[in-house]
Fold this sequence. Notes:
Blueprint: H1 7-16, E1 25-26, E2 32-35, E3 39-42, E4 46-60, E5 63-67, E6 79-84, E7 87-93, E8 101-105, E9 118-123, E10 127-131, E11 136-140, E12 146-151, E13 154-158, E14 164-167, E15 171-174, E16 181-183, E17 197-198, E18 201-206, E19 212-219, H2 220-225, H3 228-231, H4 238-258, E20 268-269, H5 284-292, E21 296-300, E22 310-311, H6 322-326, E23 342-347, H7 348-354, E24 363-371, E25 377-384, E26 388-392, H8 394-400, E27 405-408, E28 412-414, E29 424-430, E30 436-443, E31 452-453, H9 454-462, H10 467-474, E32 478-482, E33 487-488, E34 492-493
Parallel strand pairs: 4-7, 8-20, 22-31
Antiparallel strand pairs: 1-6, 2-3, 3-4, 4-5, 6-7, 8-19, 9-12, 9-16, 10-11, 10-15, 12-13, 13-14, 15-18, 16-17, 18-19, 21-32, 23-27, 23-30, 24-25, 25-26, 27-28, 29-30, 33-34
Helix pairs in contact: 4-5, 4-9, 4-10
Amino acid sequence: MRKLxxxxxxxxxxxxxxxxxxxxxxxxxxxxxxxxxxxVEFEHHGSLPLSEAAxxxxxxxxxxxxxxxxxxxxxxKEVAATLKKGxxxxxxxxxxxxIKTILVALTTDEFRSIEHKELxxxxxxxxxxxxxxxxxxxxVEEGEEAVVYAKEGKxxxxxGKGGLWEFAQRLYLSAPAGGLIQINTFLRGTTTKFYPRxxxxxxxxxxxxxxxxxxxxVDLEEYLYQVVPSEMPKSWPLEALKAQAVAARTFAxxxxxxxxxxxxxxxxxxxxxxxxxxxxxxxxxxxxxxDETAGLILAQKDGTIGSAYFYSTSAGGSLETLAxxxxxxxxxxxxxxPWFRWQCTFSQEDLxxxxxxxxxxxxxxxxxxxxxxxxxxxxxxxxxxxxxxxxRGELTIRNALAPKKLVRLADVLTNEALLPSAFFLVEQSRDxxxxxxxxxxxxxxxxHGLGMSQWGAKGLAEAGFDYESILKRYYPNTRLLxxxxxxxxxxxxx
Length: 494
């Protein structure tokens, strides 16, 4: 097992030999756990302050090429820090500048939070538990159950034999190649629930006094084995699944490349705020789609990697008139999605309940005041007898108007957490005195409306289009390339 000298020992050696305080000290290459604007945390060296003038260099084919600091990503395993006056002023990257593994922050039951109080593990093979800072650890045997929980800023681990271990530093849980780690604390799945099993390894780190983060580091392609069937039904056409695989791979690489959560030590979450991971078991058809598009991502013509967003169903237009809403000619193009058209009715009492914290009084009416360039409602005025408010933002509006009853083309849903989409128009009915009785929203589609419609991909695949044609339809001005091709400056692909 690889061991590195701790930073304190290096500093002691320096002082012993009388090296000047301002001299530069290059540390051995180490793995980056977190990086922000003012610090960088390494697996063995710990957290070090980052100089405002820090530079980064990528070592490629014998050359040290200057790259922007944001080219250095969380998860890179071979990064050497050079210190001067106690700060990191240079980072030398020896990893290839492409994403090989993904760091996934796992959420609790029902995807509620990334902060865990307790987790129970059962491995399908040996499970090695190690606190790398001290070298302490133990082995959980195949089929044994181990439990970890946070208490007073420390991790307490009950091993499979009844022993109790206390750790103050980050823990690593790893299984031999092919081994899986099952979590017994929460269930995943939509109709059929199951205890999820994960590939790769886990990192557990304290988050506050009574919580910890659980981050799953997994090979990019293996990550997709548990994303694609969670995002698209395995029974759908293979070409649609291939398009989903490329979009999901591109999204994951983009999140890792741009490191929006680098200060927290992960690339993506396992829920809809990123893309859903391990909410359905692995499926043969989905795995085939991933394997047959292995490594392929979408890049803009200038080489930048886009996020390749995707969503459930397109509305087929902005739906600004009832005539538009009533036109269902495009339904087949959306794979006959049940979300293509929907409507919901809000009574006066419903609206008062939804906006009770705003102090509006009686609701006088709803008025769409803005739509974005895609036709989504981006500003909605709610008028009351006491005052009015304007709700802004696609997701904020959808959350504000969570319907008790939603009528779709084929069925009725109740107590939805949010509107399916922000593509809708409003029709209002009033009593003989002109007071608002109810507001009916006529809407279409499901999701944010950016990138690829998944039901649309299904419709195109059923019409005979291959995955490349589907991707061109939804992501114009992009090209396919292999993600292992070198990323220029960390954010571009060549």
